[in-house]
Write a structure and sequence with these properties.
The structure is a single chain. By secondary structure, the chain is of the alpha+beta class. 51% of the residues lie in helices and 20% in strands. A hairpin with a 2-residue loop joins strand 2 (138-143) and strand 3.
Length: 346
């Protein structure tokens, strides 16, 4: 028994430096877990060793809780040692931003109690995390019913978006609240600033950059066009396998608050089987109508968009351009019009 005690004491003694380092870091944040006078020395008894073991286990559990609030993937990009993360840490990276939210969530929340709203959200968000992690991304933050995730390449972001739509449809069928809902997804890419902001007593990670705003606007556009996933041209160009996806050109859109238009694409693969077939069958007709629209042949364009709507009445993108054709036939396009459309809604 004495020999076993000596082995345990020896093993725990090896952790002394790590424990003291953790203690210093934690004390610096005004969180007391260890009492330094209890850190072992050569006269330590087995009872003391077990006490230190318990305290070390508590610290590990606390660190696991911390990880749930601040993505370790985020911190590992900023600093080599997460314990050294501090205000002002920052780095510039080219990343792909996926932004998704539940359409009409306000109406959903109004039909539920506060407790059920939180349960509904947590159940769905718990399911939604899988497609992101499984495609090598990580959740940067949850914003109410919205998810913002980051990826290092385009294909991971697109595949995650497609999988996320599948998960949402599955949850839609099986959720205990019997509340039907849809999600929208926008994806954009560009240079982002990752950093730590806040005050000395309260810090948080954040991502800053125009790609975040555009991804959010594309998510909003997905609702206007009733499209499951909308990706910018930059995302599609960044893909190594663009032909692996069924894409529909939705034209050049000036998003709310933007002067420059973005060429955007619908990733039809994110649709349900029935909707996918309808949009895929009409894809060539839609893009032909869009080309006529850009070339100011509004009468011919209107005819094709009307044909699409006869086949697929809920094609909101076709309806959007049909209305534009009818308007421009009467009053003409704005002076200097370049074929792009300005949106006033998010």
């Amino acid at each position: 028994m004495v020999e076993k005690d000596d082995v345990l004491i020896s093993e725990i003694y090896k952790l002394k430096k790590d424990i003291m380092r953790l203690n210093r870091e934690i004390e610096r944040r005004d969180v007391t877990i260890y009492r330094l006078e209890r850190i072992i020395d050569r006269g330590t008894t087995l009872a003391d060793v077990l006490l230190v073991e318990r305290e070390l286990d508590n610290t590990k559990k606390l660190l696991e809780v911390f990880k749930k609030f601040v993505p370790t993937e985020f911190l590992s990009v900023l600093v080599e040692d997460p314990f050294k993360a501090t205000l002002g840490n920052q780095v510039k990276l080219d990343l792909f931003v996926l932004f998704s939210d539940i359409r009409g969530f306000t109406s959903i929340s109004e039909s539920l109690s506060a407790e059920d709203t939180i349960k509904f959200l947590n159940d769905y968000l718990g399911e939604a995390e899988g497609p992101i992690i499984n495609n090598h991304g990580f959740v940067d933050k949850y914003i109410g019913d919205a998810i913002m995730a980051l990826f290092s390449n385009a294909d991971d972001a697109i595949k995650a978006a497609i999988d996320l739509q599948r998960v949402a449809r599955a949850y839609n069928k099986n959720n205990s609240f019997s509340l039907p809902f849809k999600i929208g997804i926008g994806i954009h890419t560009g240079e982002l600033m990752l950093g730590i902001v806040g005050a000395a007593s309260r810090m948080q990670s954040t991502v800053i950059g125009d790609p975040v705003n555009i991804a959010s606007r594309l998510d909003g556009l997905s609702s206007i066009f009733n499209a499951p996933i909308i990706a910018s041209e930059d995302v599609i160009k960044g893909s190594n396998i663009p032909n692996a996806y069924s894409l529909r050109n939705l034209g050049y859109i000036k998003l709310k608050g933007k002067i420059t238009a973005n060429k955007v694409f619908e990733v039809i693969d994110g649709e349900s089987e029935d909707a996918y077939k309808k949009k895929a069958d009409n894809k060539n007709t839609f893009e032909e109508a869009l080309e006529l629209f850009v070339n100011k042949q509004f009468l011919a364009s209107e005819k094709l968009f009307r044909t699409i709507l006869d086949r697929c009445p809920d094609d909101a993108a076709a309806l959007f351009y049909l209305n534009k054709c009818q308007h421009y036939k009467i009053v003409g396009p704005p002076e200097g019009w370049d074929g792009s459309e300005q949106l006033v809604d998010k």
